[in-house]
Amino acid sequence: MKDAGRLIRETNLVPKKEKGQNFLTDEATADRQVNYAEISEGDEVLEIGPGFGILTERLVKTKGNLTCIELDDKLAEHIGNKFGDKLNLIRGDAVKVDWSEFDVFVSNLPYSVSTPIIFKLLEQDFRKAVIMVQKEFADRMVAKPGTKDYSRLTVGVYHKAECRILEKVPAGRFNPRPKVDSAVVSLVPRPTPFELRDEKLFFKIVNLCFGQRRKKIGTTLKNAGIVKKDSELPYLDNRIEDLSPEEIGDLANLIASDATNV
User: Fold this and answer.
1) Cα angle at 26 between 22 and 32, to 5 degrees?
2) What gap in Å lies between CA 188 and CA 191, rounded to an integer?
3) Spatial distance between the Cα atoms of 169 and 182, rounded to a whole number of angstroms
4) Residue range 175-201, pLDDT digits in tens
5) Strand 182-189 vs strand 161-169: parallel, antiparallel, or unpaired?
6) Which of 1, 20, 157, 218 is most buried per CB count within 10 Å?
7) Quick one: angle between helices 199-211 and 245-256, nearest 10?
8) Quick one: CA dihedral 51, 62, 97, 139, positive or negative?
9) pTM of the model
10) How far apart are CA 90 and CA 79, in angstroms?
11) Is 71 helix (H, G, I), strand (E, B) or coil?
């Protein structure tokens, strides 16, 4: 790949901080990302935010069929000119546009849209995802209950997939250099490891309680009218950050039962 600085000059693109545009420049890291993805012949592959194409030029050489989604007009023009009919290019906002069906997802996600993209990804049917995100974001994806990184994101990811941090990527491997390191993570979908009677209620509890994570669960849910004021359900004296996803699911199931509904 050409030096990112040269490509920035050639495309007359000024990387936008608000869009999280930091371009990977390390060839070896990109090679490993594609190897982690384990793309098979005939696989449909999706890349979001190809940027200058360091991953793209490797993905088009696999046996898969590549689709890229790019919002930035100048970057989309660069990708279209460089790769032509070797890929299917969709110009648009990946948070808003419909995604075509895919088997494998490989992307260096713009920092600014990591959360909505991950939640949208988890709603898709796919075999494996290999994603570059900020290191602190990756830590939240795999955090344990009772830690500062444990969050709504952690529970959402755990509910849908097995997540692993594959490697840390230093900030110096990007241009422009971001203020923080990144990490490559993998997501492999699997069945939810606990039973839920009402998935919508489960996520309502997760979102409400993590939005007020320092309050006791009972206080938050009673104020929201989700449990009775005199309820003696378990976990209500805990904070949400101290419960495992399974325990949150247990609470949601108890609330969902006819005997405890308001």
Assistant:
1) 110
2) 10
3) 5
4) 888 999 999 999 999 999 999 999 999
5) antiparallel
6) 157
7) 120
8) negative
9) 0.91
10) 11
11) coil
Contact 56, 87 (CB under 8 A): yes
Structure tokens at 183: 């990490």
Closest C-alpha to 150, from 44, 56, 49, 242: 242
Q: Which residue has the tokens 């898709």?
A: 124
Q: How far apart (Å, rounded) are the C-alpha atoms in residues 189 and 124?
A: 9
Helix (H, G, I), strand (E, B) or coil at 76: helix
> For 106, phi and psi rounded to 5 degrees?
-135, 115
Residue 58 to residue 8: CA distance in whole angstroms: 20
Joined tokens for residue 258: 């006819």
Q: Show the domains of the chain with their CATH numbers.
A: 4-189 (3.40.50.150), 199-260 (no CATH)
Report the C-alpha gap between 61 and 76 in whole angstroms.
19
Interacting residues of 148 by C-beta distance below 8 A, sequence separation 6+: none
At 104-162, the pLDDT tens digits run 999 999 888 999 999 999 999 999 999 999 999 999 999 999 999 999 999 999 999 99
